[in-house]
Amino acid sequence: MSADTLSDLLRAVRLRGAFFFYVEGAEPWVVETSRSSELIPVIMPGVEHLMEFHGIASGSCWAAIVGDEPIRLNEGDVVFFPQGDPHIMSSAPGMRAEILDGGLHFTPRPPQLPYCLRPGQDTSTARLDGGGREQTTVVCGFLGCDAKPFNPLLASMPRVLRVPGVAAEGKSWIANFLRSVVEESSRKRPGGEAVLERMSEMLFVEVLRHYVDGLPPDHRGWLAGMRDAAVGRALALMHEKPADPWTLERLGEEAAMSRSVLAERFVHFIGQPPMQYLAQWRMQLAAGRLRDTDAKVVDVAFDVGYDNEAAFARAFKRAVGESPGAWRRAHRGIQKGHPAPALAN
């Protein structure tokens, strides 16, 4: 495994893009989306957590979690809703959709994704032509990931994560990236869905980088811990060699810090002791091996640092509430679909 801890985590929790679609709106317009957990059966059946994001390819608009203050978005800006909150995108602040379709999906599914919604399009699922002169193009997409047995990234992200399109040194690459998404969406070339799915994953990583770079020194959470020299070193070691017989003393030696200070710093940032983190990380890796391979349970146990199958099985059941065999039967072979969501007006 790589010493790139963030990449390790994203692989282990199976971060994957669903698709892009984009909306061209003429003001006044409003789009309201329900909690992402309600969209999972339509967007990515079988995933445990779904995040929605929007990038402003041209024009400007407003974004808000339902009940919260709206945020102004300009060309090149990207906004993520990592916790899956219901939210609103609109041409002006304070707008709400009159009707929110409980089905939240196109029926039937569009023959090819990504799907483009344009003003005046003949569809009952969106009416985004308000007749005004101000035009906005919003690129929308989804990312799915595992929430269980262990995903420390989710808890470390805010409810709204906004990255501005204009950095101190000028335009960031995100604005050009969004225009590339629109172009790829419009051309509908073979392999377009796969390309756009990977692009959504790239965008998420870049947004996380911007977010981490801007965190204040006293910020806590997994992302802040990854940035700390000692805690980040300990995380990297446990991610790189999860099956090693790690102890707090050995981690402290590797991180050039006393075990007591390391333990204190680790709890400060991550919210739990290093050995507890390691046990949960091993369970996440084991769950992936059980789901994705035909490896025997005893081999999975050895791969994640357990000396025998019985001890592993007990630990796994404590962590996930099921035996390794039951977990495997319940989670293997779930098909991932990519239908498109409905937009309420």
Automatic annotation (TrEMBL):
InterPro entries: AraC_lig, AraC_XylS_family_regulators, Homeodomain-like_sf, HTH_AraC, HTH_AraC-typ_CS, RmlC_Cupin_sf, Tscrpt_reg_AraC-type_HTH. Keywords: DNA-binding, Transcription, Transcription regulation. PROSITE patterns: HTH_ARAC_FAMILY_1, HTH_ARAC_FAMILY_2. Residues 232-330 form the HTH araC/xylS-type domain. GO terms for molecular function: DNA-binding transcription factor activity; sequence-specific DNA binding. It comes from the Bacteria. Pfam families: Cupin_6, HTH_18. This is AraC family transcriptional regulator.
